[in-house]
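Extended Data, panel c. Modelled sequence:
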Amino acid sequence: MAEGKEQFGEEVIVAIATPPGTSGIGKVRISGDKALKVADKIFYSPADVKLKEVESHTINYGFIRDLSGQEIDEVLALVMRSPRSFTREDTVEFDCHGGMLPLQGVLEAALEAGARLAEPGEFSRRAFLNGRIDLAQAEGIIDLINAKSSKGREIALQQLRGRLSEHIGQLRSKLLDILTGVEASIDFPEDEIPELDQTSLGDQLEEIKSELEELIASSRTGRVYQEGIETVIAGKPNVGKSSLLNYLLNENRAIVTDIPGTTRDVITEMISFAGLPLKIVDTAGIHQTEDRVEKIGVEKSQNSLKTADLVLLMLDVSQGITAEDLEIYRLVQDKPLIILVNKTDLPADLSQEQIEERFSAQPVIFISVREETGLQELKDKIYEIIMGGRAAGDYDYIITRLRHQQALEEARDSLKRAIEAYRDGVPADLLAVDLKEVLVKLGEITGDTVAEDIIDRIFADFCIGK
């Protein structure tokens, strides 16, 4: 798929590569076959250094001036010559002072000198098209930037380093060997080509199918680490929802009082425990009310329940199970759900056995947020539900992207058809059709066989300057 530098001609691109705001250092990146020429138009060195004359991977001190000679900023210029740069093009990175005015001034000077503003993800796209990285590695970049947990960062970094791509390449190589033998039997039926070892062929296809299914199975774990799990704390007013949020965050994020209805809006925070990113949503108590403000909060709470990946339904053991509790339970009973029976430090209105019998279809955990009892059991149960009883470390490779999952599922389905065709003794040319489809789908992951519109969508998700 990679088309190489001829696609870009003499175009030089430039962008601010650091986030908006005030900081110690900001970066302006320039890339292209004539990047050094553009940079030298605006870079002035007291030692009369020309960037086009310095060695690659050197840092050079100087100033940026616009074409009229107006001084803009004091900078360090890092020069990386092709092909030893991220884009495999000549690249100059100006380390500037981090305010927006200096950065904007340097950017405008580079544009005036002949560069054009880079599109979102264009530096990474050039790296892909110039063969520096494949498509899965490019997606690893954006996953690394957006990682929400240390494990998500680790998975993204492995993908960026090409570990997934290498495994996909190994699977494609096995399939190509099989396909070569199949097509040889089609093209040269009368020549002295050894007949396909039917038993060995079947075993090889089954082995590849098992590897695909293992990758597909890892996708749920991967998406958990990359996207996080929306975990909604629900219940009627004054059952301890905000106290639980504060405990999980280890800070007083939500106001806690004995007055029912204190929380009137949805509060959302991202937390991490056991390496898992959880988007914790504390909701207003769901109940019937005539208060207009409370009604809005209740509606928001009900909407949060619709999108939740996991619901923590809190009950107050000192009040027993009320009609409001049962109505909320009706709304969430078909979702992944944990029943939390709070305030076990107070006299109970119902016995533990009665509550467990009423909610026998879901896990029930008895806690006291005030006394901090039962909360480790809650954390263990959240982890168990999210991970489906399987730790992430059990997988050799972890799929994090829905695009990869769908390509793998389509590859597996084509391989299943090939296996069935082989078992039914269909002609070799029909078997080859399904095997080629498997190769195409696997190639979509790394970019070897992917359509241009998919590439456009992937790099459109990147920020400008990356």
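The longest strand covers residues 71-80. This feature is highlighted in the accompanying rendering.
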